[in-house]
């Protein structure tokens, strides 16, 4: 036996050694060689037959000749972009890799049945003609497949399937291709895909990083679809490709030569529209009214419009969007106007906003039956991060028995100035955001939340407003009104506006939020369901996030008051000045009778 020092091996030598360990009789071609070399598929795709964009995607999926980085892939988006072609290339590359394998011993897989390649379409006939038929045509164009690869001696089997059939029973399916699943019955598509994942993982989980996989290719649809379901529920090792046609065909240079315009893709309360006055030479160009191409639209973007739903479209497609904006969004941009997606798609900007230090636990707990109060648990955060000269706004998401209760404090920070002039935009800060929990078997004590607000008020902070959701909050608001603290009801589950405003603050860099890890987890997993902002099924809650958003939006609702200096702070400052020069009198008497310090 020869000892091998793997630390001294080159990258290529290490790869060949691993191939031998895995059971390869010889090294398969790389994906680029497979596509470009005439011996494999080069006669079909090696001379400009494959868009460079797709070659990059394939190399991302197959980083080496023996490794698969993404066994589960979704191709969605624009029509005519080559999604099904890529999937069929992947099927043939999987066959090529298997053909170079000597045995499955390393993976602990015993082959007792055929290794099935399942091709599913809107009908079984379409699966035969559009998927398997195309591969059979390619077969004879490839010297490798038509001469070296011996199908008759192999264990491989192509199977066509559709929503009304169940032809996959009996074999061992190592490769699945689901085509145009957005255009078949949702429940049937879900059953087929769930079944495929269960069968693949139960049989070939150990080989998923090397062979086979599950691939879905489907154009965008107008309603929420099975593709959205997969994106939400199968995140592990899932690669999602959803690009507009002008990105995929960008190498041709046919798009954007005459400029670009903006399109708002729509949301639950606003229809899609072409943005008025949005034409630019490039998306990054400054607006120049003397250089603008008129657009047939008088609809402008407002602060209520979600910035993640604005796209730049090549002017060459303007007539398409003017004629049918819904169809164009689906066919050329590859977007569903009602698709479910991550709410904060720009996760980098979201993470940048958590700049305020956290001095208390993410979750505070107090026994329902003892005298311990929440104020003592959050006092250090208040004293270090909440200036008393600011008027504060409190948001509460009330969870009594099931969820946590979210509690957040925000305040107006400063106006935004441009060229020395004050704008209507402003900065906000959220220095306190916590979850309030209870001991096992108990409910959250609403009285202690009331006491927390009362203690904050008596400690010298001026409370501009307390905003609560609707659940179990009426009594709290009534109790607060008795001590002259203004409160009102707003549910972020009934309107998009608070979350859209908060997102705009974050994306513009105008919001700084406390670094609460639970809050960060909540906000990173928020999704747009099509009718409200919710959390993924895998996430436990969004209680702190709702409280934060309500407290920040309360500043917008009360901006004429929120930007002022706290009256309590002003009076206290004046009293301290008076004391410093040993002056007393009626002003001190009146002030100290109204404000408690």
CATH architecture of the largest domain: 3-Layer(aba) Sandwich
Number of strands: 19
- How would the global form be characterised? elongated
> In the CATH hierarchy, what is the superfamily of the largest domain?
P-loop containing nucleotide triphosphate hydrolases
Roughly what is the average pLDDT, rounded to an integer? Answer: 86
Q: What is the third-level CATH name, the topology of the largest domain?
A: Rossmann fold
What would you say this structure looks like, in words?
The protein is α/β, with parallel strands linked by helices and 597 residues long. It folds into four domains: 19-243, P-loop containing nucleotide triphosphate hydrolases (Rossmann fold, 3-Layer(aba) Sandwich), CATH 3.40.50; 253-339, no CATH class; 350-565, Nucleotidyltransferase, domain 5; 567-597. The chain is built from 22 helices and 19 strands. The strands form four sheets. Strands 11, 12, 13, 14, 15, 16 and 17 form a seven-stranded mixed β-sheet that branches. A hairpin with a 2-residue loop joins strand 13 and strand 14. Helix 17 (497-507) packs across helix 19 (543-557). The termini are far apart. The model has no long low-confidence stretch (mean pLDDT 86).
């Amino acid at each position: 036996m020869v000892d091998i020092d793997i630390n001294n091996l080159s990258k290529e030598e290490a790869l060949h050694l691993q191939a031998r360990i895995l059971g390869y009789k010889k090294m398969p071609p790389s994906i680029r060689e497979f596509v470009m070399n005439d011996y494999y598929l080069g006669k079909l795709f090696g001379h400009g037959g494959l868009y460079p964009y797709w070659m990059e995607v394939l190399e991302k999926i197959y980083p080496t000749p023996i490794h698969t980085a993404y066994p589960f892939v979704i191709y969605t988006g624009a029509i005519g972009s080559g999604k099904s072609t890529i999937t069929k290339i992947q099927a043939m590359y999987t066959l090529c890799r298997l053909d170079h394998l000597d045995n499955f011993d390393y993976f602990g897989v015993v082959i007792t049945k055929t290794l099935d390649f399942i091709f599913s379409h809107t009908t079984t006939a379409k699966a035969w003609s559009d998927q398997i038929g195309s591969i059979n045509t390619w077969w004879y164009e490839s010297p490798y497949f038509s001469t070296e690869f011996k199908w008759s001696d192999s264990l491989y089997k192509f199977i066509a399937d559709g929503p009304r059939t169940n032809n996959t029973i009996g074999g061992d399916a190592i490769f699945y291709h689901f085509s145009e699943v957005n255009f078949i019955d949702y429940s049937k598509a879900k059953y087929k895909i769930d079944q495929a994942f269960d069968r693949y993982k139960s049989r070939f989980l150990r080989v998923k990083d090397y062979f086979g996989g599950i691939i879905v290719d489907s154009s965008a649809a107008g309603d929420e679809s099975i593709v959205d379901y997969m994106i939400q529920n199968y995140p592990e090792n899932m690669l999602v490709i959803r690009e507009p046609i002008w990105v995929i065909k960008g190498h041709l240079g046919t798009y954007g030569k005459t400029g670009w315009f903006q399109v708002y893709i729509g949301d639950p309360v606003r229809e899609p529209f072409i943005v008025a006055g949005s034409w630019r030479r490039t998306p990054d160009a400054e607006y120049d009214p003397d250089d603008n191409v008129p657009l047939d639209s008088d609809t402008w973007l407002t602060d209520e419009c979600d910035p993640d739903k604005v796209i730049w479209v090549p002017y060459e497609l303007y007539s398409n969007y003017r004629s049918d904006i819904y169809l164009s969004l689906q066919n050329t941009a590859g977007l569903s106007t009602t698709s479910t997606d991550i709410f904060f798609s720009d996760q980098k900007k979201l993470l940048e906003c958590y700049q305020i230090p956290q001095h208390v636990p993410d979750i505070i707990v107090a026994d329902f039956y003892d005298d311990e109060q929440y104020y003592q648990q959050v006092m250090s955060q208040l004293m270090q991060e909440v200036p008393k000269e600011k008027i504060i706004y409190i948001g509460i998401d009330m969870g009594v028995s099931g969820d946590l209760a979210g509690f957040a404090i925000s305040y107006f920070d400063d106006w935004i100035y441009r060229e020395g002039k004050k704008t209507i935009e402003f900065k906000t800060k959220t220095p306190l955001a916590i979850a309030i929990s209870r001991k096992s078997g108990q409910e959250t004590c609403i009285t202690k939340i009331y006491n927390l607000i009362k203690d904050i008020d008596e400690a010298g902070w001026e409370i501009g407003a307390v905003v609560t959701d609707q659940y179990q909050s009426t009594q709290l608001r009534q109790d607060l009104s008795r001590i002259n603290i203004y409160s009102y009801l707003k549910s972020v589950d009934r309107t998009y506006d608070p979350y859209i405003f908060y997102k705009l603050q974050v994306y513009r860099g105008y919001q700084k939020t406390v670094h609460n890890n639970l809050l960060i987890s909540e906000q990173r997993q928020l999704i747009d369901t099509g009718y409200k902002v919710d959390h993924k099924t895998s996430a436990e809650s969004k209680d702190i996030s709702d409280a934060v958003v309500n407290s920040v939006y309360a500043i917008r609702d009360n901006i004429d008051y929120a930007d002022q200096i706290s009256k309590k702070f002003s009076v206290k400052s004046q009293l301290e000045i008076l004391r410093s020069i040993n002056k007393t009198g009626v002003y001190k008497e009146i002030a100290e009778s109204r404000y408690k310090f």
